[in-house]
Write a structure and sequence with these properties.
Blueprint lengths: L7 E6 L6 H6 L4 E5 L9 H14 L5 E4 L8 H10 L3 E6 L5 H8 L5 E5 L2 H5 L1 H5 L8 E2 L1 H8 L6 H20 L6 E2 L8 H13 L4 E4 L3 H10 L3 H14 L6 E3 L2 E3 L1 H19 L1
Parallel strand pairs: 1-2, 1-8, 2-3, 3-4, 4-5, 5-6, 7-8
Antiparallel strand pairs: 9-10
Length: about 280
């Protein structure tokens, strides 16, 4: 799937069609049209109609849709809509809590990105991550924090959420999934705070983040991009590796296969940054 390695995944409300083109043009790696939390109950059906009309006029557009949860009355209608439209390249499943829920979504033949947002979902993370059709994991800190009774924003709550990040990362790696996406950073005007949060997520092994405002996109990309010193080191490693097939020393550091892979990854990230 074209969006498998997306760094930024930008939500746009399904009930706001005037924002669809703007979201697609803002530089986000992937746009997620939201049928769930961002759409009022009485506008759910209209959101599908509006996106359907947009996709009919924009045959080349490819995006993801966050459908309503498995327990919601509009869930099946959302799935039917996504199955009918080629422009919907994948499904974001909110409040994922079981392999059965994931299987129902995957049955329409498109990649699934489950969002872990409850204690039940967290406890079922292993079976969710190993389900056929799952491509990438993420989590929703606000809903999960509410379900767990966390004091949102406190040091202790952040410690719990870091354990959630570790669980999501481990299950992603164990099941060969793409590096997970970090949760939404809700203070969209606080770009310094976003940069700090993404730096931590990056260092923990996350590959990007969910975004709720276009202004967050460039900051996410910047936070994930390698530094000049990292790129200089990576190029030096790869040049030195061309003359040997075994482990070697470079500037007092042992260079072996894992280190070489890290250098290659840094240069791949830089190439992705330049292409965006």
């Amino acid at each position: 799937m074209a969006f498998a390695n997306a760094r930024s995944a930008l939500f746009v409300p399904g009930s706001r069609p005037e924002r669809f083109s703007k979201a697609l043009a803002c530089g986000a790696d992937v746009v997620i049209v939201d049928f769930e939390d961002a759409v009022e109950e009485h506008l759910k059906r209209q959101a599908r109609e509006l996106l359907g009309e947009f996709l009919a006029r924009s045959a080349q557009v490819r995006l993801l849709v966050r459908i309503n949860s498995a327990e919601h009355a509009e869930h099946e209608a959302d799935l039917s809509f996504c199955q009918r439209h080629d422009g919907v390249a994948g499904i974001v499943l909110p409040k994922a809590e079981s392999a059965h829920q994931v299987a129902r979504v995957a049955a329409i033949g498109k990649p699934v990105w489950p969002i872990i947002e409850s204690a039940r979902g967290l406890l079922a993370l292993g079976e969710i991550a190993s389900s056929a059709g799952v491509e990438r994991l993420t989590f929703g800190a606000l809903d999960l924090g509410l379900d767990l009774g966390l004091n949102t924003g406190s040091i202790v709550a952040e410690g719990v959420l870091d354990q959630v990040r570790l669980a999501v990362l481990l299950h992603s790696r164990a099941n060969g999934l793409v590096a997970p996406l970090d949760t939404v950073f809700p203070a969209f005007d606080d770009l310094d705070g976003l940069r700090l949060a993404l730096g931590r997520a990056r260092d923990m092994g996350f590959g990007g983040a969910l975004c709720i405002h276009p202004k967050q996109v460039s900051t996410v990309h910047e936070a994930l991009a390698p530094t000049e010193s990292q790129l200089l080191w990576a190029r030096k490693v790869l040049v030195a590796a061309q003359s040997t097939q075994a482990a070697f020393q470079l500037d007092g550091q042992m260079i072996d296969a894992p280190v070489l892979s890290h250098a290659q990854r840094l240069l791949a990230l830089q190439e992705q940054t330049l292409e965006s």
